[in-house]
């Protein structure tokens, strides 16, 4: 992605001091927690589970405080487990080669190709230049939100926000110079970007890491596969409800009193024209992405039409898993020539610029979750918690959503999901509740933390523009949090059971 599309994440001195203090606390508290748990007599635990509990206490503290980079902590946890003889290396590191890991890698590389060739910008300016949008501030706000949601459903929400924010800031500056549009409109356009990036990512398994974490853990620990289409069948309606609320709320907050701003259409048309005609690299990237999406969605649609038990549908689902579809698209990127002199659509150097840290974080979470299940630690923890909280499906689903949102407000939503889902699964199993519905609610809720810049990368990106005050982010974000933590579990309970066996 061109560097001029990515706004710098500038932190205030107060934020830098807070982050530094948080890291210092983690460096001290993490090892202390590890030693305390290791020394404390837990008679109900096996020796392996006891040692794993100590490792997990260190990892959770480090994830929350970011004492070390999240990916490094994700490697430290499994490595410590091996050194302490919780499990052998082959078993401990096996989740890092999970099919979901390869789905991650493939989808990241495909998104990288779209950004390298600026296909996302074509989509953005194409939508904003539609006559139905025109120069009306309210329609621009909604079109911007739809763009953010659609792109984030297929690409990293961080990358989507990084691309859309500079476009939005330039539009805001023009609008403010061309008319007396109020400053709050700029605030709402930035908030529209981050809210819709986060909610759009909920729509597909590849939209955001928490979704894939849920899919991976449900597959590994419950031996239940959620297909691409199954996820979309229950998630897309939930996303549409959440988006409708965001549109209504932010249009009310960002009222301008102005019907139209002359010149806006011209600015957008000029930016669109500057991209020039479609080039072969752009077409190739779009083709590879289209083939992949077809392979992701096609088998699931076939199973939906013929029935999941139909022999042909079963055969297709088994032979074209989502990870293979993603890798097929990646191979196409290297087979399709970009020009007569360039043999591939992207180079390996460009492909390797994906977020490997998130992949390692996901692998570490899968590894520790599997160890917690195999050593019996998860069951003991769950049995202890079930005596303290209500454990029917409805109560557990709402509790899972609330717990994950609270965690996500103060740490990476990927790390929060790695912590929350194994706990939720264990409680559900110990209570005799199907763990799939609460786990899905937890994963989706990880994407709706909106109150702080640290909650999600899109929040940090829009906050760094200076267009959103911290007080506004907290004030509007808390409203969004309360609505989401109520609606997400309710909608999951209402919709998801119809599509999840």
Describe this structure in words.
The protein is an all-alpha fold. Helix content is 73%, strand content 0%. It has 23 helices and no strands. α13 (280-306) runs antiparallel to α15 and α19 (393-410) runs antiparallel to α23 (470-495). Mean pLDDT is 83; it is low at 1-9.
Topology summary:
Layout: H1 13-39, H2 47-65, H3 70-83, H4 89-93, H5 99-116, H6 119-128, H7 137-152, H8 157-178, H9 183-200, H10 209-222, H11 228-253, H12 264-274, H13 280-306, H14 311-319, H15 322-335, H16 348-351, H17 356-375, H18 377-386, H19 393-410, H20 413-431, H21 436-445, H22 457-464, H23 470-495
Helix pairs in contact: 1-2, 2-3, 2-17, 3-17, 5-13, 5-15, 6-7, 6-12, 7-8, 7-9, 8-9, 8-22, 9-11, 9-22, 10-17, 10-20, 10-21, 11-23, 13-14, 13-15, 17-20, 18-20, 19-20, 19-21, 19-23, 20-21, 21-23
